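Researcher: Structure prediction, please.
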Amino acid sequence: MDLINHLFTEFGMVVMISIFFFIIYKILKKDRTTIKIVFSGYYIITAIGFIVEFILNIYLFVGEEIIVGILYKLSLYLVTYALVPFLVFFISYQKEEVESIPKKRWAILIVYAVLFLLFFFNPGYAGANESSGWAPLLDLTYYVIFFILLSSIVVPIYYYIIKILGKFEDKMMKRRWMLLIFGFSELMFSFYYLEFTCFMNDSLSRSIAGFLTLILLSNGAYLIYYAVIRKYVK
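Model: Predicted structure follows.
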């Protein structure tokens, strides 16, 4: 990674971290209900993942493979797992569970925390190393497993947000919810495309994916927040 790309990446990370902390503040500044705390979980966990990645990019210059590998896996674990609170939120939103969330919903958070932990910190998961130019790599087996794990979260989320859309009668809420669907699709495109470029191991594609991720994650996260804010985040 040359100096210009490195500085651009670090600047982008600072911007994304700032955006996510701003959204977290707006969500939790008052009336910290259970449903709002769950909703904010995506932003909190993702922001922590970005901070870890920010530190990771600094360590790339040091070149300590063990530390870089651990930080890489930890950042990817956090950013991916952050989607699970969204799943719990949209299930609860659809079922209008505002004041409290059943224990079986919390079980979803625990199960996926363990599954992603076993996946990303499995000794067979290569991650990033000096031989790959510190670029994250995925072989076919781990790419397929990751695709299945991610899709097991993404597909139900789409199911519930579309189901919620059908319940709205207010045109403004329908328009907002369409923005949410668009924003969530931006998030998912960045996830799938970035992991695909890691599997293909093409430096140009990874650079493009990295640039797109900065834009799509920030914009998608804000659109989701904007769509939900009217009902639960005031």
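Model: The two ends are 42 Å apart (CA to CA).
Researcher: Thanks, that helps.
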